[in-house]
Specification:
Blueprint lengths: L1 H5 L19 H15 L5 E5 L6 H15 L2 E7 L7 H12 L6 H15 L2 E7 L7 H7 L14 E7 L2 H8 L1 H5 L1 E5 L5 H14 L9 H13 L6 H17 L7 H14 L3
Parallel strand pairs: 1-4, 1-5, 2-3, 3-4
Helix pairs in contact: 2-3, 9-10, 10-12, 11-12
């Protein structure tokens, strides 16, 4: 492939969960800090992080997991709901298996969390990815039963961070009880500055020079994505930049020219499914 041709240590635009290449866009970087602050201040027990497919929800979730663990003040449980329409009882069994306790009822989980808090004074955070695969608002309402555990000051010692599609927020909006205890964080698309910063970071991180892509080329990439229903997400930037480097390699061109970029974008963007 083009890695050695351009002198990269690794392929710079691979799509993989990798915190070393995490880019905190202006919008989503603020969300990360707001979520951490909300958790720390015990503001609400339920937080939702939502966005379209490939918006970067899972990557942000892993970044939050890393940040929460580094704080040293929380017990963090990461769960991924892989099947659709998972009811609360099935989800509860998944929780029980994950934290490795005996019992089959919610009381078992409540007792365990309470005992652990009394030992370490650490709040429990459940990070649930693909939470739109839960069976509707009823499953989320049941999750709140775990947040009834309080500390000495009457604050909940359990919080849930739900990552998934905007369907989660639709459930929340339909239920007054959920609305009262939920903070919603919709992910945004990358701005032009974000696209430029992301590309520069990736190139430099993996041994390339940001000059490989001129400012005009980065603007052209943003413009192409922006026209396709504003899908300026890292996933799609990776798709396009990878295709550009591959085409340059096949044509034996070590400099990236605008004409080549236009040809790749025209063919690639048309095939992007949203």
């Amino acid at each position: 492939m083009y890695k050695d041709f351009f002198g990269f240590r690794e392929l710079p635009f691979k799509n993989a969960l990798d915190l070393t290449s995490y880019y905190p866009s202006e919008r989503n970087g603020n969300i990360e800090q707001e979520v951490l602050k909300t958790i720390k201040e015990f503001r609400v027990p339920l937080l939702t992080i939502t966005g379209d497919r490939n918006a970067g929800k899972s990557t942000l979730g892993i970044k939050l997991l890393d940040s929460l663990l580094k704080e040293g003040e929380y017990k963090v449980v990461l769960l991924v709901v892989t099947k659709k329409q998972v009811d609360f009882d099935s989800f509860l069994k998944k929780v029980i298996r994950h934290i490795d306790i005996s019992g089959e009822e919610i009381k078992s989980v409540i007792d365990f969390i309470g005992q652990e808090y009394n030992k370490e004074k650490e709040k429990t955070i459940f990070l649930i990815d693909n939470s739109n695969n839960l069976a509707g608002e009823e499953a989320i309402v049941n999750l709140l039963r775990l947040t009834e555990l309080k500390d000495e000051d009457g604050r909940s010692i359990v919080s849930f961070i739900l990552l998934g599609s905007s369907l989660i927020n639709e459930w929340v909006e339909k239920n007054e009880k959920l609305k009262e205890v939920t903070k919603q964080y919709p992910l945004g698309v990358f701005s032009l500055a974000d696209v430029k910063g992301y590309i520069d970071q990736r190139l430099e991180l993996y041994g390339g020079k940001k000059e490989l892509f001129s400012e005009k080329i980065k603007e052209k990439i943003f413009e192409s994505l922006d026209k396709k229903n504003k899908i300026s997400y890292p996933f799609w930037i990776n798709v396009l930049c990878d295709a550009i480097f591959l085409q340059a390699f096949l044509l034996d061109k070590k400099s990236i020219e605008m004409e080549l970029v236009k040809n790749v974008l025209e063919k690639t963007v048309l095939n992007i499914k949203v």
